[in-house]
Amino acid sequence: MSSLYADALLFVFCTISIQLRVCTGQNVDTTPIRLAVLAPGDETLPFAMHKVVPAVLYAVQTLARQGGRPMEVLHRDTECSSTYGPLHAFELYNSGLADVLLGPLCPYVLAPIARYSSVWELPILTAAGQNDNFDFKEPHYRLLTRMNGSYSQIGMIFLQVLKKFNWEVVALLFHNFEDRTIGNSDCYFTLGAVYTALGRKSFYKDFDETNKAMNYEEMLKEVSQNARAPAFSQIVQY
């Protein structure tokens, strides 16, 4: 369990409690707040269920010892599926089992559930959602709170670095899946925000790092030819 993540959750939960006037000990509502954790059960993932739930329970138990409003925690395995993840969200909403959703953590699960949440008036707290698509709160993502910032901030950092060194010609090189049925990679979403920040005019090239037949020499030659200027060149690889 990550103590940093647990402490962050503790701060967020206490903020919710203050807004509900229950951290002060005055007008305490004893009805439990129902927290629903939506995360994948795949233990190989950094945000797997068995890693997230203990941090949530730690934060809830700490608040309970401090006299805060009681909270109940339940969880569902989204399987990182854009089909099964939203189905679990529908089940929670229709059954009236959740007041707050924690997660989802997979982007293709988060996107549809975050759009439904605005209709359901059901807030979402997530450590995911860095994609710059989620930067626009209205009309679809107004109840989405991201605890980890966004990739668009990386784009702004790149602009400052380019300005510092007076670089103007940039090529983007990043890993993405050839099999588009599994969606795009985190590298795609990260440099997608950089591409947007650069004005959507930079050359870019994607490759599948799992493809053993990949000709890296030819790829690098192509990228270098599109990242050259008389005095400088720069390749951004992710």
Automatic annotation (TrEMBL):
A GO BP entry: signal transduction
Gene (name only)? NPR3
| Phylogenetic placement of the source organism | Eukaryota, Metazoa, Ecdysozoa, Arthropoda, Chelicerata
One Pfam family per UniProt: ANF_receptor
GO CC terms, sorted? membrane
What domain of life is recorded for the organism? Eukaryota
- Family matches, as SUPFAM superfamilies: Periplasmic binding protein-like I (SSF53822)
Question: Where does it primarily localize?
Answer: membrane
Where does this protein reside within or beyond the cell? Answer: Membrane
Supply the name of the protein: Atrial natriuretic peptide receptor 3
- Which Gene3D superfamilies is this protein grouped with? 3.40.50.2300
Picking any one GO molecular function of the record gives:
signaling receptor activity
- Please give the InterPro entries that the UniProt record associates with this protein: ANF_lig-bd_rcpt (IPR001828), ANP_Clearance_Receptor (IPR052612), Peripla_BP_I (IPR028082)
The species this protein belongs to is Trichonephila inaurata madagascariensis
Q: Which residues form the signal peptide?
A: 1-25
Domain Receptor ligand binding region span(s) in chain numbering: 54-225
